[in-house]
Amino acid sequence: MTSTRENVHLTSALADRQRVPLRLIILFLLGAGLLVFLTYLGFQRSAQEAKTSPPAASTEERVIVLSKAAQRNAGVAFETVQTRTRAMSFEAPGVLSLDETRTARIGSMVEGKIVSAVAQVGDRVVPGTVLAEIHSHVLHDAWADYRKAKAERTRRSTELRYAVQAEQRAQRLYADKAISLQEVQRAQVDRVAAQQALATANTELRRSEEALEHLGITALGQDPRGEAGEQIPVKSPLAGAVLEKNVTNGTAVTPGAQLFVVSDLSTLWALAEVDETRLPYIKVGLPVAIRVAAYPGETFPGTVIFIGDTLDPKTRRVTVRCRVPNQYGRLKPQMYATLAFGEAEARSVPVVPSQAVQELDGKSVVFTVDGAGKFSAREVATGPESEGWTEIRSGVQPGEKIVTTGSFLLKSELSKASMQEEE
Q1: Could you tell me if 156 and 201 are in contact, meaning their C-beta atoms sit under 8 angstroms apart?
Q2: Choices 3.30.360.10, 1.20.1440.230, 3.30.2130.10, 2.40.420.20: CATH for 59-86+347-422
Q3: 170 and 184 in contact (C-beta within 8 Å)?
Q4: Which of 82, 84, 75, 134 is closest to 110 using CA atoms?
Q5: What's the rounded mean pLDDT across residues 318-346?
Q6: What is the mean pLDDT of residues 152-180?
Q7: pLDDT single digits (tens) 374-405
């Protein structure tokens, strides 16, 4: 009996030992689940706070505070944004060139050979001046056509006179009852045919004359015989200076070959390369002041006559063409020049001292004063600078107080604070 009870107690103890690890496992699993649940709630709360929290302050909202003592030590000075009336001006590089409307690039119209190159580089010529003479078979053919047409017209004129006389004689004979009406009508038909033939001959003669005139032969009354005088003259179409001569005696030429360049240098072009941001300030008719290295301290007046229709993709600039009077020939083509453009009408613009504008993170900023010792870096869009004042297109308004002297110190302090925050 006793042995039986001991076995029962031993079996109960073993069961208790087996139940203990099971409780621990259950408790462990409940704790792990609770930990996961709490972690999930933490992530959810963080995500919600990230959604509702404001974004980091931008460059325009950065603030720095300095005590009055620190301001005095740094020499911080203030000034209000002012409004000034100014005609915006800026400069652009350029080069002088020929006025193409007053320049003739004279070429050959036929195939031939230069028999006389009269003009020399530097010569001053007037319209119609013979620069050279070309010998060409084309002119011989043109003269032959002209003489043939002239002889044909003479023959047709003679035939018309004979037809008119024949018609008149037939009418007299018909009046005397010597011939029939049919013969009179035949004489009239012959006279009309002779008139038409003469008209055709006149047209052909005029065509041959125009062919000669196209080749530069205008004195048709002086019909040359043989080869003497049968040369094509190369004439200047305008008054100016001979700038280029590309032929000499004996040079063989072909149609389109450039022989001479003649230009009227009393007017030149100035071609300026203007940044695209300056285009709103340029218009046709705007006056321009031009300076060249040859005459330091002296300016030459010009006028905008054309603004380019396309932008150079490499330089982001537009070619602006200006007309420059050059009555005394002091300016020379291909001179480098500096062109100063100015607005025709003045306008009121906000301006700040140039030293007040600082660059922060690649942006232009000024420091505004808001409260005692509180300075805010505000991004601004700047315009051209002139006489120590920079135009402000946006960012601050006239009357606002900004930092002038000491703005660089504020920028340094702000940059230092940003670096500490990042660390």
Answers
A1: yes
A2: 2.40.420.20
A3: yes
A4: 134
A5: 89
A6: 93
A7: 777 888 888 777 778 888 888 888 888 888 88
CA distance 75 to 80: 17
Residue 4: CB partners within 8 Å, gap ≥ 6? none
Residue 271's nearest CA partner among 307, 224, 217, 296 is 307
Q: Please give the backbone phi and psi of residue 179, each rounded to the nearest 5 degrees, phi first.
A: -135, 170
Question: What pLDDT digit, counting tens, does each position of 267-282 carry?
Answer: 999 999 999 888 888 8
Q: Mean pLDDT over all residues of the chain? A: 81
- Domain assignments of the chain as residue spans, ordered by start: 59-86+347-422, 91-100+264-342, 135-232
The dihedrals phi and psi of 147, each to the nearest 5 degrees, come to -65, -40
Q: How many CA atoms lie within 13 A of 62 on its CB side?
A: 21
Task: Kindly state the tokens that stand for 198.
Answer: 């003469």
CA angle 401, 405, 406 (to 5 degrees): 100
Residues 6+ apart with CB under 8 A from 34: none
The dihedral sign for the CA sequence 75, 76, 79, 81: positive
pTM of the model: 0.58
Mention the CATH class of domain 91-100+264-342.
mainly beta
